[in-house]
Structure formats: C-alpha cells, structure tokens
Design brief:
Layout lengths: L2 E7 L16 E7 L3 E8 L4 E2 L11 E15 L4 E18 L4 E6 L8 E8 L4 E6 L7 E9 L4 E7 L2 E9 L4 E9 L1 E9 L4 E8 L10 E9 L4 E7 L6
Parallel strand pairs: 2-4, 2-5, 3-5, 4-6, 5-6, 6-7, 6-8, 7-9, 8-10, 9-11, 10-12, 11-13, 12-14, 13-15, 14-16, 15-17
Antiparallel strand pairs: 1-2
Length: 242
Amino acid sequence: MNKYILGLVLLFSIPSAFAAATDDNEININQEGDTLTLLIDQYGYGNKMGLDNFDSSSGAMVITGATLNFNIDQIGNENLLYGPFIADTSTVVLEWNGDSNVWDWNVGNGGSSDDANIASDITGDSNTMDLDIGYFASAERLDFDLTVIGSSNVFDVDIDVDDAVWNTSVTGGSNNINTLQKDGAEHEINLTHVGSGADIDINQISGTCGTGISTCNGIITLDIDSENATIQINQKDSANDS
C-alpha cells in the first residue's frame, strides 16, 4: 500500500504590488511509497521546494520509494530546491529559467539510489547547484545530462555510483564546475564548455571492481572553447578521495 503525505503551501502575490518579492510560492512534501509521478510548475520570484520555509522554520522534501518520476520546472529568479530523496529506478527532469537560483539535493543518503536518470536544463546567471548522488548507500547506475546557458554559475557535483555517465554542455562566462566521481567500476564525464574564464576541477577516482570485471575504467572527455580558463584534473586508480 502506498502512503502519501503531501504538505503544500502556495502563497500567491500580486505582481504589481510585490514585484520584488522573494517568497512567492512554497511546496513541502513528505512522501513514502512506490510508483510516484510528481509534476510541479512554479512561476515567479522565490519559488521554493523543501527544507526551511520562508519563516525559517522546518519544512520537508523527503521522498522515499521505487519507480519515481519527477518533472519540476522553476521559472523565475531566486528559486530554491532543497531536500533528499531515496529511490530505485528514478527519472528526474528539471528546468530552471532565471537567476540566483539554488539547487541543493542529496540522492540516496541513508538508502538506495539505483538506476537514476537525471536531465537538467538551466538558463540564467549566478545559479548554484550542490548535488550529491550515492552518498554512503547503495547506488549502481547514473545517467546525468546537464545543459547550462548562463554566466557566473557554480556547480558542485559528487557522484558515488558504480557506473556513472555525466554529459554536460555549458555556454557562458566565469562558470565554476567542481566534480568528484569515486568508488565506481565505470565512470565517464563528457564536458563541452564555451565561454571565457572557465574554472573546472575534475576528480575521478576508481573504486573496487565488481565481480567478473577485470579493470575499472575512468574516462574524461573535454571540449573547451575558453580564454583564461583554469582546468585541474585528478584521475586516480584508488578508492580514496583526492
């Protein structure tokens, strides 16, 4: 039996009176159960999902289950997307369109996150993404596609998955990308970046090969068109962090 507990708080402001508001819409979700389809569209300034609400009191975005499908669109500036979820066979489609947004997720912390498929399109400047996938729990496969158009964005992505492929296309100046891929038999990152002042740090660290696998492979493919770029790559055949 599926259990669904949805706490939804939607605060609508009148655009003509509150054009500069940063607390328009808020959604808090606490859900347990399999085969969930979650479709959310938020438009305005200061859209928010999960964690602390606009009054600094505790909120939630704790989602647990198998076969989860998310489609989340946050359109506007200063949007916030927080909270963990635990899932096997999850599909996430995320669209951000705006500036100064924050995406802070951990997937699989304290539980499994096998077979994750994440596709994200981000358009805007000064956005921040802190994404942790796998953490200390089971995580077998990840297919992550990220497309970014904008400048001065900061991305910190930690992947602790057996088999991960991350395809990223970034267009814009002064973007900062920091990623750690560790403890996997097969890790692959394909990054295309067009724009000046790129700051890219890639740590790719192989783990213990699975049963029947003789070698653990790490593959990094970069296509960079940038002036004044700084790129640092650490690629190691070790289970330890760099």
